[in-house]
Amino acid sequence: MGRLRNALAADGLAAIAEVKRRSPSAGDLRPDADPAALAASFERAGAAGVSILVDDRFAGSVADLAGAREATAVPLLAKGFFSTREELAELRRAGADAVLLLLRDLDDARMRELLGAAEELGLDALVEAHDAKELGRAVELGADPIGINARDLSTFAIDRRTQLELVEAAPGDRVVVAESAIAARAHAAEAELAGADAVLVGSTLMRAPDPAAKLQELIERPLVKVCGLTREDDVAAAAEAGADLAGFVLARETPRRAAAVLAVPDTMLSVAVHVGEVTDDGADLVQLYGREDGHRSRTATLLRRGREVAHVVDREWEADDPGHLDRAERTRGRVVLAGGLSPENVRQAIERVRPWAVDASSSLETAPGIKDHARVRAYIEAARCS
Hints:
The protein is about 35% helix and about 25% strand. By secondary structure, it is of the alpha/beta class.
């Protein structure tokens, strides 16, 4: 496999940052975009790869690809509407490490031809699918990596739900890239939990005042969860402060039990917290504890659509737990660190454990289930500070 595929297959969620001056659906995005300068800034911000639009419908050209190649060492993806070996050869000479191939525009015979040409030229081919039929074709053709685009290229409509279902359905042995519709950390995290190895982000970055800073924001870890929410104004305060996950405790043994999972803004994912058993609550994620001696266990599982996606390392129920951070450090995979976190200690805990997410509740309250908005802001600011 080539440079782009290998970069995307590394641990954690990778990102391909895209340079495009305009979009057929949205018009001008950043008409004065300098591909070389942007590619270099995206590399510094942690991009695993950079996508360059080389089609004049996006106000791009092969010269943009060549300019980016001179400015960055990260893998470059040439993006356009390609159908011939000669086009791929030209892109390779200009510095591309990978090319986009659209199943919508290519039948299986032509796709096999181009996949073979890409391999001979030393190019990865990101094969893009938009629906279940195209995903099936990509799998049968041996495509790797596979892109799942949330945007219908005929209508330009965005369908994130279908995208996530396709990401979840893709084979686990292929590198999967969720394309389009990534505008917040929660969107990137949801794609990651559905099974995406990477996200490709273009319009969101091009609209941002500082595209590289926006890229860092989207892939920043840990995610921040505010739990024990019971009121709509506390959800709004957590969202405004920048929380990614909103937790609603539905277990019976807590004074901060929520009557239901409340609506959350698009920038957040809702998490229903259960002990012992799960009810159908409509949350994006479920945090499930076992029941021990009439109380919750000190560990839990984070579930998405019934599938385990992270480990929650918490403290003993209402007890000191000096081995808490040691256990979290030893836990492999995605770790949600919970229990005893506050604005005063969350940064120290993050630096020691390097969790995927942090989770605080009682330290942010004036009374059980009633949040202190100033402490919520302080906690999130401390978690974000690096």
